[in-house]
């Protein structure tokens, strides 16, 4: 079998000879392949059999490594994005010297939802007719094979997970528990990136064990966040600000990125808790802790 047949996979090869910069491995035919000394932690001897992963190096040559990656042709695994090249695609580190390309044709049309460096994808490898190795993302059926079923006890549970598919109508998530979930566009403030880690909560458990997820915080969590925003601003101004429940909506939006209704709810809560008070259109931090 030609060495090209092993590209993106592992093969049992024999050390045919040693060189100053590594070893040459053979499949018993006339071909051999370089195992660079940077690609093995072992000291090998002529005639020794080794298991090696074969890939194409940056010069277009077949190369070998004894650092066997989880991600191979026909085998899926999680791997991180190492670089992003607009108009080309994203490069992914599978654990060998050369990062593998996920081409732009296999990525979302809008680059805004392409993965960023550090994002994580569930992938395999494919080899094209020119013996080039590319990354292939897991499809929905592949995710289904590794997913576990949620139960009604998981309803309203806080979760986090990775986005494995994204579209205008919604995003698909694989959670840390192994649940396969869907995030409807109405349940997200923005469209998450492919491979992005997000946090949310389960809002429905389907009969098939998949879940619906919301990335929108619960009302009390939103109120907490809005209240903290107001308090932080007050503290940055020595406890006084020219904003109150009579302020213009556009002024509130510009300063706090909040609607007037959200601002009034948060301000009302802070007043009820005795943390702030209002006088003549201004709001003050109550340093005594009582109104």
Automatic annotation (TrEMBL):
Boundaries of every Conserved virulence factor B first S1 domain copy: 7-66
Record-annotated Conserved virulence factor B third S1 domain positions: 144-217
Domain Conserved virulence factor B second S1: 76-135
InterPro entries in the record: CvfB_fam, CvfB_S1_2nd, CvfB_S1_3rd, CvfB_S1_st, CvfB_WH, NA-bd_OB-fold, WH-like_DNA-bd_sf, WH_DNA-bd_sf
Domain Conserved virulence factor B-like winged helix: 228-285
Superkingdom classification of source: Bacteria
Position of the signal peptide: none
Coiled-coil portions: none
Pfam family, one: CvfB_2nd
Family: Belongs to the CvfB family.
Protein's recorded name: S1 motif domain-containing protein
């Amino acid at each position: 079998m030609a060495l090209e047949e092993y590209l993106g996979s592992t093969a049992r090869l024999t050390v045919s000879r040693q060189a100053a910069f590594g070893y040459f491995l053979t499949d018993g035919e006339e071909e051999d392949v370089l195992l660079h000394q940077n690609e093995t932690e072992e000291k090998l001897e002529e005639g020794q059999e080794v298991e090696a992963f074969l890939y194409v190096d940056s010069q277009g040559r077949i190369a070998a490594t004894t650092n066997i990656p989880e991600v191979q042709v026909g085998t899926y695994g999680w791997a991180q994005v190492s670089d992003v090249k607009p108009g080309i695609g994203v490069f992914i580190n599978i654990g060998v010297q050369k990062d593998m390309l996920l081409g732009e044709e296999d990525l979302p049309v809008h680059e805004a939802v392409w993965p960023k460096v550090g994002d994580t994808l569930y992938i395999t490898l494919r080899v094209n007719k020119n013996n080039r190795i590319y990354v292939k993302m897991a499809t929905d059926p592949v995710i289904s094979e590794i997913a576990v079923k949620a139960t009604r006890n998981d309803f309203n549970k806080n979760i986090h997970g990775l986005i494995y598919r994204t579209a205008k109508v919604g995003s698909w998530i694989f959670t840390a528990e192994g649940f396969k979930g869907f995030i409807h566009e109405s349940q997200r403030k923005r469209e998450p990136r492919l491979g992005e880690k997000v946090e949310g909560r389960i809002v429905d458990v389907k009969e098939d064990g998949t879940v619906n997820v919301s990335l929108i915080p619960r009302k009390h969590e939103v109120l907490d966040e809005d209240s903290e925003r107001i308090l932080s601003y007050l503290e940055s101004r020595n406890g006084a600000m020219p904003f109150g429940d009579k302020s213009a909506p556009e002024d509130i939006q510009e300063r706090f990125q909040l609607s007037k209704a959200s601002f009034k709810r948060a301000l009302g809560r802070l007043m009820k808790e005795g943390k702030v008070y209002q006088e003549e259109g201004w709001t003050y931090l109550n340093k005594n802790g009582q109104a």
